[in-house]
Design goal:
The chain is mostly beta strands and 362 residues long. It has 3 helices and 23 strands. The chain has helices spanning 101-118, 124-133, 156-159; strands spanning 19-23, 27-30, 34-38, 66-76, 95-99, 166-171, 177-179, 183-191, 196-204, 213-219, 224-228, 233-245, 250-254, 259-262, 276-285, 287-294, 298-305, 311-320, 323-329, 332-333, 336-337, 341-348, 353-360. The strands form 6 sheets. Strands 7, 9, 10, 12, 13, 14, 17, 18, 22 and 23 form a 10-stranded mixed β-sheet that branches. The chain has a 3-stranded mixed β-sheet with strand order 1-4-5.
């Protein structure tokens, strides 16, 4: 008796992923009947199921292409179905134990859903090829591919990449002093077992507590990016790199220590006699120039807050030498245009907190 070329419709279709079935359960505990339930002729666990059709297709094309659990599968029992017989139910009373390729194929369908969550927009052929490339083999499957097992047993875990990339910021590493609006280069290293898909670069001006300013997003892993330093003075700046692989695994690294971003002094330090803040134009339309006066070396912080006291923008934070510093606010917060209305400049100095209204008009 020739048991080959038995795979029929619809599994014999060119684009259909034909799934064989192997045994994974021979005995179970029944909620209704208790322990000791099982098949009268128990299958060999791990072996191909006796009902699983053998290929190839009649024109020699490989069928099936993979195998999944299909002999001894606990599946949901419909409330509209006939009552469960002796030992037919699993240990919760609402699942039944079944067998057939009708139960191995859903394993592959569920695995495909997981793969699409891992790599959205993948084509059917990519899913199929990935499952075949990572199928598990053992003493039952023998050398693959073959007409009984295809490429082996479904192994969704090994199909999905669980290894995160490695990443490190090279420069700025800490201790540098950059002038606002100057041209600098951020450099990093990033690697992955499959490949780094993209890199994000972000700036912190509060020592790494937050990274609200994007330097670059979704750029290739070239190892360097030419950067125009923003007009945000800080003595506690850091740059962070986030490397992402094709499986959306990420690695994050930031500057080893802080660096400084300075503003060019608009007037000699000797002419500044008191702490002060100002802005112009006010009301503003589009952008405003914010000015901070520091009469002596001091630790100061200059921010913009809304009516609820939420911080919209940080202009300066850290130790500043005597002088007058200017900053430009383009009316944006976290990459979005701020709403028209009333805002407050908040200037924190060692001796006093200065507040000035700033109106954004549209």
């Amino acid at each position: 008796l020739d048991n080959t070329t038995m795979v029929g419709e619809p599994a014999d279709g060119d684009s259909v992923f034909a799934v064989a079935a192997h045994a994974t359960k021979s005995a179970w505990t029944s909620c209704n009947s208790g322990p000791g339930c099982g098949y009268g002729s128990p299958p060999t666990l791990g072996a191909i199921a006796s009902f699983s059709c053998v290929g190839p297709r009649r024109d020699g094309v490989l069928k099936p292409e993979i195998s999944a659990p299909g002999f001894g599968v606990a599946t949901t029992h419909s409330s509209a179905a006939a009552a469960l017989g002796t030992c037919a139910d699993a240990d919760d009373g609402v699942h039944e134990v079944e067998a057939g390729t009708s139960f191995s194929s859903p394993h592959v369908a569920g695995a495909a859903a997981l793969f699409l969550e891992y790599q959205p927009n993948s084509s059917p052929s990519k899913v199929k090829q990935s499952f075949q490339a990572h199928a598990r083999t053992d003493g039952f499957t023998g050398s693959v591919p073959n007409n009984t097992w295809g490429y082996g047993k479904l192994d969704i875990y090994s199909t999905i990449d669980h290894v995160a990339p490695a990443a490190a910021i090279v420069t700025p590493s800490g201790g540098e002093s950059y002038t606002a609006n100057s041209a600098q280069t951020v450099t990093w290293s990033a690697s992955d077992n499959i490949g780094v898909a993209s890199v994000d670069l972000d700036l912190s001006t509060d020592g790494g507590s937050t990274y609200p300013t994007s330097v670059a997003a979704n750029v290739p892993n070239t190892g360097s990016f030419n950067w125009t330093v923003p007009g945000v003075a800080s003595t506690t700046a850091r740059v962070r790199v986030t490397a992402r692989d094709g499986g959306n695994n990420t690695a994050v690294s930031s500057s080893a220590s802080t660096f400084t971003i300075t503003q060019s002094l608009s007037v000699p330090p000797s002419s500044v006699t008191s702490f002060a803040i100002s802005s112009r134009p006010n009301p503003m339309r589009g952008s405003a120039l914010v000015e901070m006066s520091v009469p002596r070396a001091s630790n100061v912080r200059l921010t913009l807050v809304d009516l609820q006291g939420r911080e919209i923008r940080q202009f300066a934070a850290g130790n500043f030498s005597a002088g007058r510093y200017t900053f430009n606010w383009d009316g944006h917060s976290s990459g979005r245009t701020a709403a028209a209305g009333l805002y407050f400049l908040r200037f924190e100095t060692p001796s006093h907190v200065y507040v000035q209204r700033l109106v954004m008009a549209r």
